[in-house]
Amino acid sequence: MTLSNKITLFRVSLCPIFLALFLIPGVLYKILALLIVIFSETSDALDGYLARKRNQLTMLGKLFDPYADSIFRYTTFLCFTGYIHGGHNIVPVWMVVLIFYRDATIWFLRTISASQDFILSARISGKLKAIFQAITILLIMLLIILTEFGLNVYLNNIAYYAMLMVTLFTLISGVEYLIANWKLIKSVKR
User: Which of 60, 136, 164, 179 has its CA 20 to 30 A from that of 173?
Assistant: First the structure.
């Protein structure tokens, strides 16, 4: 297992730690959860950089890295759906479900393609989606922390519209991915 794959594995192991910290009441635990988000997103960039720099791009890494990204981001998104402020969830479940549908479809196609010995490459729209999701997660975490400090930062409105934009962009990137890889998808042996 390469160093970049070990970093990716470590990122997956951060998911339950983030979940536990997020669910414990208190601003200190939310700050620690934010630090895990920062570490996870930084290590995501690092593992890809190391894999390319060391010329250690592997089939495992090409499949494992997007899996790790999805698992960590779903953990945060699901935590946001359970976070109630002002009597309302700050992020509706339907947004996370649509993001899941997109990612599950792409993951399914990648798995089928890998079983046929070819990899559906990532698209620039998918990379932008990941950056947009990471920024939104960081923004919402910061707003949660500020809210827990007693500041009125319009958490519900900002979280809702930020996640709405993430959901729409995620769906658009999924459609773009399908269109760009359609010929390759159709060529998969039945």
Answer: 60
* Range 3-186 classified under CATH 2.40.230: no
CA pair distance 119, 112, nearest whole angstrom: 9
CA 173 – CA 124 distance, rounded (Å): 9
Per-residue model confidence as pLDDT tens digits over 73-89: 999 999 999 999 989 99
Percent of the chain with pLDDT over 90: 58
pTM over 0.85: yes
Q: What's the rounded Cα separation, in Å, for the pair 17 and 20?
A: 5
Domain coordinates of the chain in residue numbers? 3-186
pLDDT tens, residue by residue, 37-65 = 999 999 888 877 777 788 877 766 777 78
Q: What is the dihedral of CA 101, 102, 105, 107, to 10 degrees?
A: -110
Q: How far apart are CA 121 and CA 110, in angstroms?
A: 9
Phi then psi for residue 14, to 5 deg, are -75, -20
